[in-house]
Amino acid sequence: MPIAPADAPRLLDAGDGGLVVEFGDAIDEGVNRQVIALADALDASALPGLREVVPTYRSLLVLFDPLVLSRRALRDEVLALWPPQAGAGEHKGCWRVPVIYGGEHGIDLDHVARLHGLTTQEVIDLHAGAAYRVYMIGFAPGFAYLGGLPEAIHTSRRSEPRLKTPPRSISIGGRQTAVSPPLEIPSGWHLLGQTPVRSYDPRRTGRPFLFAAGDTIRFAPVAPADYGALCRAAEAGEIVAQWEAS
Amino acid sequence: MGAHLVIERPGLFSSLQDFGRFGYQRFGISASGAMDSLSLQLANRLVGNPRDMAAIELTMLGLSATVEEGSARLALAGADMPLSINGRPAEGWRAYALAPGDRIEIGAARTGMRAYLAIAGGFAVAPTLGSLSTHSRSAIGGFEGRALRAGDRLPLQEAPAAPLLTLAPEDRPAETGPIRVVPGPQDDHFTPAGLATFLSSGYRVTEKADRMGAQLDGPAIEHADGFNIVSDGIMNGSIQVPGNGRPLVLLADRQTTGGYPKIATVIGADLWRLGQARPGDVLRFSAVTADEAEQVARAHEERLLALFARMTETPLPGTQLSSERLLAHNLVSGVCSALAPLDP
């Protein structure tokens, strides 16, 4: 699918081994789509000296070996690929991620509900009723930043970030929601629940990372008994998130 | 059973590091890798290794260890840490052949921050996501995903015979002068005065300096328009300036993304100096263009290759040589030129 043409990107220097391709300065799905399309196109180009690409919300960091690939040649390649075309890089389908909401699994659910004058069930229905786009994976291994949070539960970050949050937390911060990896990471976001899904698992050879930027995710509430069973299955190496092709 | 290095005293923070883990930052995996890759490469070549092989990165205080169930050829390079072998003083920047049961002891750095203990053949440890580098915060890579502990037994790979090399004192890295940076990618988020402050002031390395980054203290750098950006990718040497105006240089174990504007990026050729900077050291920065930085990168590489070529065989000490050491020496004295093809 061709992407609506955009103005030429801003190409910014990041030392002698980095080039930043900036597409805009806002969090926007169309912009993010282009970032991922360019990341995939550069990856596919197998340009000698290209080390890796790091797609984020609205810019792409391209890391390269300046002894092999000149900045000029890299800039030319980026401009030759402009505007990036979403093709194989478009991720058709949706991950259904089970979540146990509230209680010890989501200690901020009550607070978030009170803050917005909603019942906890209404917060759960809103959060689990939306489709989210993975804008980027960053901060920690497999930590997925998702856009598409319903406005009724947009919530400013906590003023005091927590130094440790439970592994596999489902949290909200500002206009975003996130899936934590199975690690106790610091976070200032509000914890709504927990998933048995391991977005990152080094023992899962061949698929250490479950989600990639561009994926779509929906959350499915599960009961405590099912959560326990899913956790055991995930511990044994199962993915436990369902992929639904569209 | 093959040779092992058995750790007795692990030092302050000793971890396996190579050039780092590339290709997974888009999944949130920090690159990690040696904080001073120049010394890592020199240590490796002293023992005849490919320059990018994983070695033990020592921080401030070295380790003590014994070679068991085999022999090992090793070299220490980087920060000036006292070294002894079986209680006898030895030197950095030269390779030694150790016999089974030999013990090395490495003390506290007199200058610099990090040294690399390279062992010929490297470690028989499986790489994680393509690299042996340790990222301890996420328990990835290295030896069990963590810094070394007393009692760890590191299995060693067998190494082909090679000469014991030395790097002359005048050839050892000792740069002074400002750290070179390329302004950007977000230098436009700072006022001209802010940029001038950054490039004209001394910044002291604080106690908050580790493998993730170095928090600097000095005159506050003025932002032009707030200090939040939409989070984007961070590279080794990115210099973030948060709201307090004090620069934070992000290094090997940095997180993959961040939301503060980056005033400048340290060039690859000078990154090793941040790996050797100690709390209290005062750093100055000077700006080069990206084109100039590309030329510096090439000159840096040529200089490094020249240093590899200038390594000489260590003169044999007159006394107390085991037959194994003599054998090792005789086996390898003719293969010096065979080292060149090892260069990647």
TrEMBL record, chain A:
Pfam families: CT_C_D. Its EC number is 3.5.2.9. SMART domains: AHS1 (SM00796). The keyword Nucleotide-binding applies. The keyword Cell inner membrane does not apply. It comes from the Bacteria. Residues 9-211 form the Carboxyltransferase domain. One of its GO terms (molecular function) is 5-oxoprolinase (ATP-hydrolyzing) activity. Coiled coil: none annotated. Keywords: ATP-binding, Hydrolase, Nucleotide-binding. Residues 157-177 are annotated as: Disordered. This is 5-oxoprolinase subunit PxpB. It comes from Ancylobacter moscoviensis. The lineage of its organism: Bacteria, Pseudomonadati, Pseudomonadota, Alphaproteobacteria, Hyphomicrobiales.
Automatic annotation (TrEMBL), chain B:
SUPFAM superfamilies: Cyclophilin-like (SSF50891). Keywords: ATP-binding, Hydrolase, Nucleotide-binding. Pfam families: CT_A_B (PF02626). Coiled coil: none annotated. The keyword Nucleotide-binding applies. InterPro entries: CT_A_B, Cyclophilin-like_dom_sf, PxpC. PANTHER family: 5-OXOPROLINASE SUBUNIT C (PTHR43309:SF5). This is Biotin-dependent carboxyltransferase family protein. It comes from Ancylobacter moscoviensis.
